[in-house]
Amino acid sequence: MSKRIPWTLIIFLAALTIPWLGSRYYTFLSTQIVILSLFAVSYNLLLGSTGLVSFGHAAYFGLGSYACGLLMKELSIPFPIALLAGGLMGAAFAAVAGYFCVRLTKIYFSMLTLAFAQIMWAICFQWNEVTGGDQGVSGIPYPELGWMSSIPGLDGFRIGDYFYIMTLAICIVCIWILQRITNSPFGRLLTTIRENPERASFIGVNVHAYELAAFVIAGGFAGISGALFGIFNRGVFADFMFWPKSAEVLIMTILGGMNHFWGPVVGTIMMVVLNQQITSYTEYWPMVLGIILLVLLFVFPGGLVGAVDAGLKRVTGRAGGRGDA
After folding, report:
1. pLDDT, tens digit, 9 for 90 and up, residues 16-28
2. Which among 5, 67, 220, 222 counts the fewest CB atoms within 10 Å?
3. Is 70 exceeded by the pLDDT of residue 178?
4. How far is CA 240 from CA 102, 130, 247, 323, in A?
């Protein structure tokens, strides 16, 4: 039954109502959630589908930010081309790093992804002439969105509202593509590799090639999310590529549930909202997050979506059992 529910469309329509609420804060928060949701869903193609724990996914997020931001600011390249360049930049560097990383397994794979990410971060941090070094690149312009005012129902909105609607449309299409990939024969082979790579190799699957393909796809979509985040942030900084950003996307994915496609989206919503709420009362957000993760891992190891799914199955199972009786 759940497979027949068009969740992508439902979520898109629900999120589309945010600008009509008239709050700058809600629009700002929703834009951040939408962009980071794409980042988390792209990461889950590695973690949830393929079983690859990458500690360097933020590198492709940051590279996409730099590519798109510099093209728009320095060369006045149109937004669609700059956005595509951001995705291609993330995919290209993911292909290079992934070529070496997928040859290793488990902790060695994870540490090598971190090593590549730190190298990319160090280059961006030191390359002052291009990346601005530790000062980053500020003043990234918004794309030209005045044309959206001619769309019925969208006249009179602020530029932030137009950017949110455009970002939502781009991210929901990207997430839909990732969902199609996950549910395709290619995605099912990734799951086979996750469950038992030796058996997959035995039946003739080129495990390294499939893992590399997943790595490149995930890097490309991370680059797109990074490009959008750079515009949203009105600046690109080397910290986008630093290891805490990779830890952040890992936490969002686990928090929501890596074994469910929409789990990373739920985890992103919870992470961003809790961060905004808790930091307004206390400066000990990292400690609170640590406590939340400890409780989650012990009580709900399948994440928030996994806990809800298990609860629904238990309820429907009991209902079915009483019906049979």
Report:
1. 899 888 788 999 9
2. 5
3. yes
4. 24, 16, 12, 54
